[in-house]
Amino acid sequence: MRFLWKDLRYRRGRAALTVAGVASLSLMILLFEGIITGMYWQASRFVESTGADVWVSRERSGGVFVGFTLLNSETVVPAVSGVGVVRSPSGEERNLIRILDEENRNDKGVYPFIFAPSRPTIRKKNMEQEVKAVVVGYRAGKLGGPKRSDIARGRMFQSTKEYAPGQDIPMECVVSDDKSLGLEVGESIEVGGHELKVVGVVEDMMFLFDTPFIFTDINVARRVALQDVIYVNTFIVKAAEEDGADDLKDVLSDPQTGLIGVDVHTTEETIDNIRKNYVDEPMKGVRFLQTLLCIASALIVGMTAYVTTFEKTREIGIMKAVGADNGYVMRLILNQIGLMSVLGVLLAVALAYATAVAQVFPFFVLISPIIACIVSAVSLAVCLLGGWIAARRAARVDPMIAFRGEV
Amino acid sequence: MSAVIEGVGLVKRFGEGDAQVTAVNGVDIAVQSGELAMLKGDSGCGKTTLMSMLGCILRPSEGTTLLEGAEVDYSDERVLPRLRREKIGFVFQMFNLAPYLSALENVLLALDVAGKKGAEAENRAEELLRQVGLEHRLTHRPGQLSGGEKQRVSFARALANNPKVIFADEPTANLDSRQSANLLALVAELREQFGAAVVIATHQTALEQSADRVIEMRDGRIVG
Questions:
Q1: Residue pLDDT, tens place only, A320-348
Q2: DSSP E strand boundaries for A26-126
């Protein structure tokens, strides 16, 4: 190690450039991975926060997040509620759906849900700005969105009970705490030609690509996103038992006794669908870019190592003349490359964490320790591969070179 | 005295066909233990090629080399480096010291190659540099040393692993006459002290008087 450090210090300019090269490429690989992981996290975070176990959507629609689905709330709720009650051979009834309101047994535990990507308008100080957001309609206190305890500032929007077109309903909403919306309690936002008053703000709740949410009552969402029709996008259901999602799905999807004209997905499947459609498919290009970056890392390290070994040809020849075998020479070169690569990768990990925490990118970036470890290992492996090719050349240096006046 | 190294019918050809050159042509040579042999001849007469073959660096086209009576197996890639680090030392015309290492570290490098590390190696390197009169230059880099001092470091490095024979290729070519004389005096002293045979290749006739034997080469053959 003593000779290695001395050599690196002697050639510090090249060593610094190599470390910087490895660091920037590894940083890019890490950040791309961080963006993908961030999107995975955002998808899981929102879908899991709804509290639903099962999602009922129009047959072959792809589900509420991926495709377009409309269901009639008057027919679906009784149908799901009915199917969700199974009878054992002894005649005993077992409800597979959790009743969230024990005082109100008419509350069937099947809740309408609207998820509508939209372009609302914010008006502030004579400025009008169209923004990107997702309108989420649900019944407050049930399933589908933030609970009262999730509100960071302000309060929860008021709930309405039954659907009645044109009825007078409180046009209120709770919004994500987000820079692009920039809304605070008391301000308002126009969605679908209707003014919504912001009554509360939730933190850490964004959809993919950092899209903010506008949470509102299901009937308000019907009005602003679906022209006040009786339809909603989907129905979400809570299973009676902790691990009852699959049983509930099986019963609701049963071709003999289940629902007709709908698809039923568990929350896990719903998250998978979002990941596949919003992240994995569009990110294929990013994955390809990551592969190119890996190759570029190997080339940078390999070329630097090659140039260095070329420059050190005489030195290596002398070492071999005084008795160094091929293994010694290869170890020497690989140790140098390994050290520079480790420094580069560590620098990349530190920078990736720092930039992710500082949120300097337009996307949410999540660098998990596992991802950092995997990317570091892959980066190191490709760097060592590039270095190994150069080290093999070094090992082939003819010791006769030591006797010659110049290389 | 017994021959520490012996070349029998050594031939070295470079190139092929019409471009083939025979650098060493049927040389028989034996160097006795503790002997100081001077290999004399004009540039290009084959001195360095002969030393490279005897020093287990270059594989002869024909002939064999015996090191301490045992035939050198040039076909085994692992044997040659081991022989070079255990039994042979080299001193080069251009000094060939690592520019980023101090005098002490340049000697330590030769010990490191032979797997000798730690305080023992450090003591050994310091002792060798003291014996070549450089105890005050241990931490100096080659760039901070004179030509004569660099060559002393080279000799200390060559002696690091107690070689049986040292091959020195034009060791005084880059030194002035005073430095050359000092170096030769040192070589004579070290030879006495370490008992290693020394083969010096040179075309400087002034060095002949220091040698036990002068071997003259011309056109790849020993002529005297």
A1: 988 999 999 999 888 988 999 999 999 99
A2: 54-58, 71-72, 85-87, 93-95, 110-118, 121-124
